[in-house]
Amino acid sequence: MGEAQCGKIKEAIGLLAFEGEPISWNRYGSGHINDTFRLICKTGEGEKHYIIQRINHEVFKDPVSLMRNIAGVTSFLRERIQAQGGDPARETLNIVKAKNGKDYCQDSDGNYWRGYLFIDGATTYDKVRQPEDFYRSGKAFGRFKRLLAEYPADELAETIPNFHNTPVRMETFKAAVKADSCGRAHLVEAEIKFALDREKEAAIAMDMLKEGRLPLCVTHNDTKLNNIMIDDVTGEALCVIDLDTIMPGLSIFDFGDSIRFGANTAEEDEPDVSKVSLSLPLFETYTRGYLEGCKGSLTTEEKMMLPMGAKLMTFECGVRFLTDFLQGDTYFHTSRENHNLDRARTQFALVADMEKKWEEMAEIVRESKK
Fold first, then answer.
1. Which of 132, 145, 230, 242 is the most exposed place for a label (fewest CB within 10 A)?
2. Which residues form a coiled coil (predicted)?
3. Amino acid 355: pLDDT
């Protein structure tokens, strides 16, 4: 850790209302966007543990609105958890306010920092160790959706505008094809056709939202396993974390992104698409957990659209990867030649496999909701 960065952390620690005397801080977690540290403070009764983070305001252009979102949602969650006899200190994030009363502070360089209570006795996992982990993940995100069912989603700011607006993503993609700024379009004619053949279907969710057939709700928008804290003793999913992308959206988006990432038999960037398929057992496992966590908070149409959510999120992600490939790999980090193209092909292969297994997916949802 550089001397300048160390100085900024010290400055931020002094601006936030941590209890006790700071004695150490070290990098924490596997996140790549924000700078995250675990802070230990000495108190008269022992130690207090905290998380302190520098918010990446290059990615999140409006940190003030972002923190307003998080403060509103976590306050609402604490009330709901407490009313149900839970432990709000462990089952949701708890913001440590700045000494001036705000939910964040700024250092002398203009960087935004925030603090959270550290949740002891719990761990996050980057990969599914066993199917039960995926079930618990689904249950946790379903419960998250249920607890926030009455939160006024339209009051939330869009931290990333049009993040899951698939028709807008398609327009960006078509513009990239037309511009062909890197001369790569001739290399991916099959992939371009695959995307364009499904353009009409890409608008179905947003059309249903406009028609009032799917309700606007609070969405997490990054529903991976490693955003769930698992209790070290009970093994149960404890708390949903990483709330930076909390936004108004559709429940099927959160469900679908979990399936896209967790029920694929291959890695997201697997070059050999013959290894790519949808695991129906994992799809069933997650669906069962998600619907159990939701406990009736989904409408009938939301439930029936869960398979479409999985397909749409996978398709949209493939379109984004392909767009970035056409534009010269300027958005997603790449570590090899054609990395984004491999990613796009993997997503499209998964979409194609979902189409083959569509009736089985629909039947799993029907049976799981009984």
1. 132
2. none
3. 98
